[in-house]
Write a structure and sequence with these properties.
Radius of gyration: 16 Å
Number of strands: 8
Largest sheet: 6 strands, mixed
Distance between the termini: 44 Å
Order of helices and strands: HEHEHEHEEEHEEH
Helix content: 25-40%
Strand content: 15-25%
């Protein structure tokens, strides 16, 4: 019963009311880039990805050339300014999400999606490996129609490759980006603060050539 509860998304009327005050009190500076988390670097565009635990996912992207800022947070649900404990209790509807700011002259959105699909198992539904719960679901939250079109095409390309390798249907949700709520300070760049911390990037070995 507990497992089923953790894998079932709640309805809006079941969500916690949340709070008006963000759980991340600014200003907060990025441990790698040195810039303020709440300020998008000039010339950068935004992308939002959920691929399991945001600690390993954020590290994956801050190490990517062309990425100018990352942050760990919550999105895709209902509760404003949730806490980590509330998200883990399946009381908010949110997924663990990484905000990625990137310089489109150095890396494009399709390349970010390729990294996304190569570094988790998007066929697992409400889990990644031993991480069980709706907050670990695979999701792409798009900021405009162009991102949606690219995400749908790249997903279709990867679906064919996953099927060739014996995997099932991709369960990744592709939805318009709603509010992104920054996670608590200790979650930001966690794997720099805790170098030997839990880092579950569940790569499957499936890859795909995407149009860039």
């Amino acid at each position: 019963m507990f497992s089923q509860h953790k894998q079932t998304l709640i309805e809006a009327e079941q969500a916690l009311p949340g709070r008006d005050t963000p759980v991340l009190a600014g200003p907060t500076f990025h441990e790698v880039f040195g810039t303020e988390l709440h300020k998008v670097p000039e010339g950068s565009e935004l992308a939002y990805f959920a691929l399991g635990c945001f600690w390993g996912a954020e590290k994956l992207y801050w190490q990517t050339p062309g990425v100018t800022l990352t942050a760990a947070g919550y999105a895709g649900g209902y509760t404003p300014n949730p806490t980590y404990e509330e998200v883990c209790a399946n009381r908010t509807g949110h997924a663990e999400v990484v905000l990625v700011a990137y310089d489109p002259t150095k890396i494009n959105y399709a390349e970010l999606l390729k990294i996304f699909y190569e570094n988790h198992d998007p066929t697992q539904g409400m889990r990644q490996g031993n991480d069980l719960g709706t907050q670990y679901r695979s999701a792409i939250y798009v900021v405009n129609d162009q991102q949606r079109e690219i995400a749908e095409q790249v997903t279709a390309d990867f679906q064919a490759e996953f099927e060739k390798q014996g995997f099932g249907k991709i369960t990744t949700e592709i939805l318009p980006a709603g509010p992104f709520y920054f996670a608590e300070d200790y979650h930001q760049q966690y794997l720099i603060k805790v170098p030997n911390g839990y880092c579950p990037v569940h790569a499957t070995g499936v890859t795909c050539n995407v149009a860039v």
